[in-house]
Amino acid sequence: MSSNRDIETLIDMMAKLPGLGPRSARRAVLHLIRKRALLLAPLSEMMQTVAATARECLNCGNIGTGDICDICSSEVRANGILCVVEDVADLWAMERSGVFKGRYHVLGGTLSALDSVGPDQLRIPRLVDRVKSEGITEVILALNATVDGQTTAHYIADELEGLATLSSLAQGVPIGGELDYLDDGTITAALNARKRL
Amino acid sequence: MSSNRDIETLIDMMAKLPGLGPRSARRAVLHLIRKRALLLAPLSEMMQTVAATARECLNCGNIGTGDICDICSSEVRANGILCVVEDVADLWAMERSGVFKGRYHVLGGTLSALDSVGPDQLRIPRLVDRVKSEGITEVILALNATVDGQTTAHYIADELEGLATLSSLAQGVPIGGELDYLDDGTITAALNARKRL
Prior knowledge:
2 copies of one chain form a homodimer. Chain A contains 8 helices and 6 strands. Chain A is an alpha/beta fold and about 200 residues long.
């Protein structure tokens, strides 16, 4: 491209974002430049604001703008019940469903022997502290249904044994799911956890 | 989402970019926040720079950082041959192929009766001026092979008749294309323009 070096750099930066590639980055940047007063300048300013203020909550690991996030500092959410998730994206997904009204704990990943991620690289010691000190009576392990997620869930279940009631998300057929398109593992899990009508 | 309002605003802004939706915007923003020192701040600064400097070339309509773009002001590119494209994205695509060494003219769209886009909303009068004043001897009409693109090509061909040699991009089977996957129109065009070996 013979266009300006800054524009090329911007495209390269955008192309490295997850879900974007060179082609979509070019389209996005061109769109931004065409509407630069309306889009590019405000987007840049908002990024600057977020870059300056966003940080991890010292208590739960969620992303917010203070030392303690909105959920931890909320006065209307239930105390005593904690939902453990791998990642902030998982927390956001739980929040979108709007059904959980307790507090969260974000591990920041899963245990992984291959990537040599141990309990101390995650927020597991902090989780045990919180369960003891915040009077948590129920812990929901909302970890992903992957091998690493389930390994981590088992490890946490061992650590928290006797401290709180533990549960995990139900596994089965997703709402709107068609059996024909489901993998064998999901069908097996749904069959094993069948409910009497 | 109960996370911070600024972060939500940033996600909403990113989600409006072409090629991104709410889900990929969330992933991108989370990725940016995790690496905010390394990615978010530099990206924001580069956007600010581009927002402040990017503008349309007064001569050809390409996007650059001065009143006259790099291609128009280049001293090594051939004079006298002009490639007419609809859009800056098309100019970039031509430049990636690296095979054209002349100058460009970006129309900024196509004639469209439905959207009431006439010749004066595009850079067509400017194109006629350039052909007359810059001593252009060949004009390549590299417009998209759509109805509006071809209508525009015909209109320009009429306007420029007698002023310069006109040509358009060849139509046919794309390199690596399999006949089985091509539409009927492309096969018809390729057959009509068949070349004697």
